[in-house]
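Archive maintenance. Older records in this collection stored only the sequence; we are now back-filling the structure field for every entry so that each record is complete. The fields below show one back-filled record exactly as it appears after the update. Entries are processed alphabetically, and Acyl-CoA thioesterase is next in the queue.

ARCHIVE ENTRY
Title: Acyl-CoA thioesterase
Organism field: Reinekea marina
Length field: 131
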Amino acid sequence: MPKLDESYPEPKGELQLRVVAQPSDVNANGDISGGWLVSQMDNAASIVASRIAKGRTATMAMGDMSFMRPIRVGSVVCCYTHIAHVGKSSVRINIEVWSRMPEDTERNKVTEAEFVYVAIDQNRRIRSIEL
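Back-filled structure field:
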């Protein structure tokens, strides 16, 4: 497989989720739905949040997001995560989404956002994170 050109920017963070966009994930315009993409980002970030919190977490907030380019059916979509901050009961996680078609070597940044999670107990009440 050809090596990526070193001049292209690299994703920040750790690869947390890799999925292939399917025909069932499109919107009315034939592009991959933004809602589907946000769901993938939430899945990726929740993996990290649960690991940091050592248990159950809930999504509390999502920062502003702009979509830089559409995602085509068949694209390999990768979510990279970077822990921005761990508080007493919350975790802020930055997420970048990059995509490429399987036959391409160049990947493109699609969007980024910050997600905030809180640790919750069995009763769905906020709890402290034990570091």
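Update note: The first strand starts at residue 14 and ends at 20. The chain has one domain: 14-119.
Entry marked complete.
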